[in-house]
What we know:
The structure is a single chain. The chain is 32% helix and 37% strand. It is elongated and about 45 Å long. By secondary structure, it is an alpha+beta fold. Strands 1, 2, 3, 4, 5, 8 and 9 form a 7-stranded antiparallel beta sheet that branches. A two-stranded antiparallel sheet has the order 6-7. The two termini are 17 Å apart. The chain folds into 2 domains: 3-70, VC0802-like; 71-147, VC0802-like (2-Layer Sandwich).
Amino acid sequence: MSIKQISVILDEQSGSLSEMTKVLADKNVEMRALTFHEAGNFSVARIIVDNVLWASSALWQAGFTADTADVTAVEIPDKDGGLSCVLNVIERAGIGIKYMYPVLSRKKTVSSGGGMPVLVFRFNDDVKAADVLKAEGIRVLGQGELSAL
């Protein structure tokens, strides 16, 4: 089970990240996750949004270079060592992690009464990772679930 991530290329000029977020805000697109990093002469913003098609279209129309990729959203057990548990499952399965970043809001669960941390992962095999995690009882979220946060 995967979700769509949008990667947006931003130049080094001041305000390009602000401009990107304004384009999304003007179209009532809500970001669920964001990571931003330097990549040579430009920067890359990776975002998870509530409406991928609407956001991609708005960014392209505003002149941004944007691309989508499949990633995996994983609910991390909200207990000591929760992330370590998830990472151990992935390591035992021989799956590599390309990158990960947190979701901006937390998934509400009935059992905890609070929020469960959610991380977005890019694995070297997202399908196998989702299958292995689910087999271990670790919740993998779909696009609709993440968009509803």
